[in-house]
Automatic annotation (TrEMBL):
E.C. designation(s): 2.7.7.6
GO function terms (MF aspect): DNA-directed RNA polymerase activity; nucleotide binding
Name of the protein this chain belongs to: DNA-directed RNA polymerase subunit Rpo4
Reactions listed under catalytic activity: RNA(n) + a ribonucleoside 5'-triphosphate = RNA(n+1) + diphosphate
Assigned keywords, A-Z: Cytoplasm, DNA-directed RNA polymerase, Nucleotidyltransferase, Transcription, Transferase
Classification via Pfam families: RNA_pol_Rpb4
Record-annotated membrane-spanning stretches: none
Any one of the GO CC terms: cytoplasm
């Protein structure tokens, strides 16, 4: 990408990315790659942006860092095995049950 410069980097949920891409699709015609990305996002987006933000706040209050919170929101584990898979490189948090309870309230 000649002439493009990365200005900032931030983690975001699939729900938020879906909303951003849908808004961009309304404004102008998308490239093939962006169309494929939007198709993927629409297929795998389970939560609305508001639900994702609510879950984000709840999970950060439980002591998870931003990267882990985003992974949990995107995957939405429903049992302990799925949650352990999200944290495969490190130990699952001690408050895993509270994390699963927060997820189950939204689903």
């Amino acid at each position: 990408m000649i002439g493009k410069k990365l200005l900032a980097e931030k983690y975001t949920t699939i729900a938020n990315a879906t909303e951003i891409m849908n808004a961009r699709a309304v404004i102008d015609e998308m490239s093939y790659e962006n169309g494929c990305a939007l198709d993927y996002l629409n297929k795998f987006s389970v939560l609305t942006k508001e639900e994702a933000e609510e879950l984000y706040e709840e999970l950060t209050s439980l002591g998870l860092d931003e990267k882990d919170v985003i992974k949990v929101i995107d995957i939405l584990p429903v049992d302990m095995e799925d949650l352990k898979a999200v944290f495969y490189k490190k130990d699952a948090p001690e408050n895993s049950e509270a994390i699963l309870d927060a997820i189950c309230k939204l689903i």
